[in-house]
Amino acid sequence: CSGSNTFTDSILIQPLPLVDFEANTYEGCSPLPVRFILEELTTVQNIDSVVFHWGDGTPSTTVFPLPMSFPLMWDTVLHVFTGQQYFDTTYFVTLIGYNECGTDTITKSILVKPNSVRAFFNIDQTDGCEDLTFRAIDLAVGDSVVTSWCWNYDPILDTCLLPGPPSPAGDTLFHTFTDPGDYIVAQFANNGCGYD
Q: Is the pTM of this model over 0.85?
């Protein structure tokens, strides 16, 4: 008597999580509200949850897929970043996805610019004879600051009667006054978020 017997069994291999996210903006003025989008970027198979680590000292946020959704759907997540007073701040946002097989991680940066800048300068002499050349040292405070100058500012009319050149913060400029008179030198600082 001859015979054969066959036995089969199935093996289910679960995928590792694969995560990604997009933000509605990666740069802006403080306070900067950012919406993080997971939809269609996070692999829909078997992700139990994702956790955002904001990199700014605030508590992490855990997000679960919307219940009873297939493929899995995710809510957008809002986080507000606050920068330093005068300097650009880069935060590194990390997203970690979890399932029973492991984790996946991705990190992206968010640049927050300050709302505060401070115009400040020093001049090497404040009086002299006509054809006076003086040196202005730009000491404006703040990152990404561009300064502009006025060699004859009228504070009553709040207007510049003799504009000077724009310059990046930290520059040294020279200007010569050829006519006698009393001049007010003004500096204006701007970083796109704050003005002084």
A: no
